[in-house]
Every structure is written in C-alpha cells, then in structure tokens.
Design a protein that fits this description.
It is a single chain. With 458 residues, the chain is α/β, with parallel strands linked by helices. It folds into 3 domains: 156 residues, Alpha-D-Glucose-1,6-Bisphosphate, subunit A, domain 3 (Alpha-D-Glucose-1,6-Bisphosphate, Chain A, domain 3); 202 residues, 3-Layer(aba) Sandwich (Alpha-D-Glucose-1,6-Bisphosphate, Chain A, domain 3), CATH 3.40.120.10; 83 residues, Alpha-D-phosphohexomutase, C-terminal domain (TATA-Binding Protein), CATH 3.30.310.50. It has 15 helices and 20 strands. Bound molecules: magnesium ion (MG).
C-alpha cells in the first residue's frame, strides 16, 4: 500500500511520483498563499515568500509548482535555489518575507520530498494556523489573483553570504583561524556543502570535503547517525583531522566525529555548543523533553537553567523567544542560536564547537570526556491512540514517585535518569526514550515499559 501524504505542523511530506506531485505542490502553494493573505490582510503592499530547496532531484519541480501556486494567489516569490533550511530562515528575515518554503524531506531517503512552511518569524506555524492551511488545502478554498495582480518570480543568490555573515558575528573568526584546524566535512550531497565549505574557509580551516556536490544522490543513508558515517570516521582518522562534521541533506542537523575517528553521538552537538555559550553568557537554554540531561548539567554549572518543551523545532524556538534563551535545540544535533535565527543550524553548531576548541585548547574527545555522559536508549513500537493512552496511564501509576511533565506525552524524571513516553504526531507509533548514568538503570526503566506494553498490547 502506498504511504499516505503526511500533513503536519511543519508542512507536507510524501513520496515523489506516488502521492507528492506538481499539482499537489501547486495547490499547497495556493493554500499557504491564501492563508498568508488572510493573516496579513491589513497590509496594502504585496506579500513576498522565499523558496529554498535541498539538493533532491525533485526539488526544482516541486519548488516551481509551489511558486506557481503562490503567484496564482498574488504572492511574489523569491527563489533562493539550492539552500539549507537555516539559510532560508536567514533570508526570510533579511528580505522581510511574510513566509518561507523549504522543499526538503530532511534526513529521509531520496524517494521522499517535503514542503516545509515557515512564518515571518522564521518558525513553523503553530498547530491552530497549520490547521487553517490544511483546511484551505483540502477545501481548495483559494483566493486567486487576476492577471494583473498575480505574483512575480525573482531569483536571489545572496543566501550564502548573508548566512555566513550572521554565523561569523557570533564567534571570534581571527582566533579560530589562527588555529588552522584540519576538518573533514560530509554534506551527504545535500544543500550544506557549498555554504559550509565557504564558512570553514573563512574560519581558516583546512577543509577535506566529502560528498559535497549537491546532487541529491546521497552517498550514504542521509540521517547523520553512527552506522551511516563510517566513511567520515575513516577519513578523519586517515587524514589526521581534528574533527569531522556531518550534515543532513538540508543542513539543520549536525553530528560530530572526534579526532580519533570516533562518532560521538548527536546528543553531544548541542551539549558542546551549550558548553561554549554558557562559558561566555548567562541565561537559560531550551531543549525538548527527549534531549539529554547533559545540557542541564552544563547550564547548572554556569548558574543557568533549561526550559523543557514538547518535541519539535517550533516548540523549542517559541520557548527561546519567550524566555530569551541564549542557546537551544534538540538532541538530534539541532542547535539554535537566536542571533542567527530560530532555526536549527548546523553552521552555528560548527562555529560554536570550533570556538570552544579554540578557547580551551582541548580536543573533541577531551571536551566530551569533561561533559561526561549518560546511556540513552530509544525504542519505537506500534500503538493506536487508545492503547497509547492506556500505556501512559499505567506508566503514571508505575512511576508515581517520579517528577512528571505532561507537556508532550509523559516525561518521568528520576534522580538517576529519566524516561520519556510520547506518541508520534504523524503515525500510530509510540516512542520510549530513556537516559541514565548507569546502563543497568536505563535498562530497568525500559523493562518496566515493556511490561506495561505487554499488558496493554498483549
Ligand atoms: Mg533536516
């Protein structure tokens, strides 16, 4: 059976040639444009939306279709070409756009593509507004413009320059450049290669780039996890580089390999970035409920604290705005610094980690050792909504002694670790994420979840 087209707060995702086609993309463009016109109805002048795409071969086709849909309802479109998701966020604010669209399926395989929507603040629409766009799409309740008032399409190639300038402004470029770091960059043939090579050159690094051509023909599975980055680890080791960086196809996520060629795990990306930020500034951090406790330890040592949010970039960004956070992100290697923009940004992660190495004079493995670590295990299982609710209810009874946060499923905090149980927004799936200092404790919490699961699901 063909997979369903998924429409969520962050946009639309599907399989090209099956359920994601040019007509679907054009109507989604019409729906987003109509929504923006209603939202900004008091504005006299025409609205502008910028469109970026990752390197997938289907990106141009879908981007053109979305652009046509937007123009059809009277929105001007600026095509940014192949550009990272965080780069699109930067341009959205530089150009004063009413919204942004990124054609990307992020870390999903090449068959997929997606249409990610951003509002004028650079963040995905909150659930109520996402629902208005969805409704408009399904009802085809569009507001077409006549032949004089339809939108126009222009092109802009300034994203890299604007993005790099914003990132350089948050670090000490001369100090980093003085170290002449030798780094390896794996951009998985996504959108990140071009701009990241330029950034690293500005930072005085000797760059060995692999899979840097933005062909969309991913040289390995695109999610930046340990099993997919053996090639990067090997190059770091054989070339005696001090660090390896891996991006996903739209370059919002970053994973790191240390100087020994060891993949350190995506959770450390945010931890290392936060370690640098908290060494310079005081304030709060924001992270989703599934993110490692390492960030709490780092914040606490600096006299700060961590605001926890529901999973999803938009939730973290909203908390960062509300609490004026100095750093934020998600454990999947997504680092957010509001000075650059409210979008997870691998270039920000790279710059902050190189700055941390510069200031401390320490290697990645030494910095990782200082932060210490936890044992994190993730499980995923099928559970329909009613079963998921029963599992949550039983877990609340079983872990009655824990501190409970119900912002997004249930997160139970114990002295020696935590457990987060949540349902997916897009599929009948439940996730259990557990983290503890002692691997045996982590296993015990997961065993307790398994027992509850057996009871409910049989
Ligand atoms: Mg991504």
């Amino acid at each position: 059976m063909a997979e369903q087209l998924i429409i969520s707060v962050s946009g639309m995702r599907g399989i090209v040639g099956e359920n994601l086609s040019a007509p679907v993309a054009a109507e989604y463009g019409c729906a987003f444009g109509t929504f923006l016109k209603n939202k900004h109805s008091s504005k006299k002048e025409k609205l502008t939306v910028c469109i970026a795409r990752d390197s997938r071969p289907s990106g141009q086709m879908l981007g053109s279709a979305v652009a046509a849909g937007l123009c059809a309802v009277g929105i001007d479109v600026v095509d940014l070409g192949i550009t990272t998701t965080p780069g699109a966020g930067v341009m959205l604010s530089e150009l004063g756009c009413a919204g942004g669209v990124v054609i990307t399926a992020s870390h999903n395989p090449i068959g997929y593509n997606g249409i990610k929507l951003l509002l004028d603040n650079g963040v995905a629409p909150p659930p109520s507004q996402a629902e208005q766009i969805r409704r408009c799409f399904f009802d085809k309740d569009f507001a077409p413009a006549d032949s004089v008032n339809c939108g126009k399409l222009t092109f802009n190639d300034q994203t890299d320059a604007a993005h790099i300038a914003k990132v350089l402004a948050i670090v000490d470029r001369e100090a980093i450049a003085a170290r002449n770091f030798k780094v390896v960059l794996d951009s998985v043939n996504g959108a990140g290669g071009r701009v990241t090579k330029k950034l690293l050159a500005e930072l005085g690094c000797e760059v060995i780039a692999i899979n840097d051509e933005p062909t969309g023909m991913f040289a390995h599975k695109p999610e930046p996890t340990a099993e997919n980055l053996t090639g990067l680890c090997e190059v770091v080791k054989t070339k005696s580089a001090v660090i390896g960086f891996a991006q996903d196809p739209d370059a919002d996520r970053l994973a790191i390999v240390d100087e020994n060629g060891t993949y350190i795990g995506e959770e450390y990306t945010l931890a290392l970035a936060a370690k640098y930020i908290f060494s310079k500034r005081s304030g709060s951090a924001a992270a989703n409920l599934s993110t490692s406790r390492m960030i709490d330890d780092i914040a606490e040592q600096a006299g700060g604290q961590v605001v926890r949010t529901a999973v999803g970039e938009a939730n973290v960004a909203a908390a960062m705005f509300e609490h004026d956070c100095i750093i934020g992100g998600e454990g999947n290697g997504g680092v957010i610094d509001l000075r650059v923009g409210p979008v997870r940004n691998s270039l920000v992660g790279i710059a902050l980690v190189l700055q941390l190495m510069t200031e401390t004079g320490k290697t990645v493995s030494q910095l990782v050792g200082e932060i210490g670590g936890y044992h994190m295990t993730k499980e995923k299982f099928t559970a329909e909504q009613n079963h998921a609710q029963q599992i949550l209810d039983l877990a609340k009874k079983a872990f009655a002694e824990a501190k409970l946060d119900t912002t997004d499923g249930c997160r139970f905090d114990f002295d020696d670790g935590w457990l987060h149980l949540r349902t997916s927004n897009t599929e009948p799936v439940m996730r259990a994420i557990v983290e503890a200092k002692d691997p045996r404790a982590a296993r015990e919490y997961l065993n307790a979840v398994s027992k509850i699961r057996m009871k409910v699901l049989g």
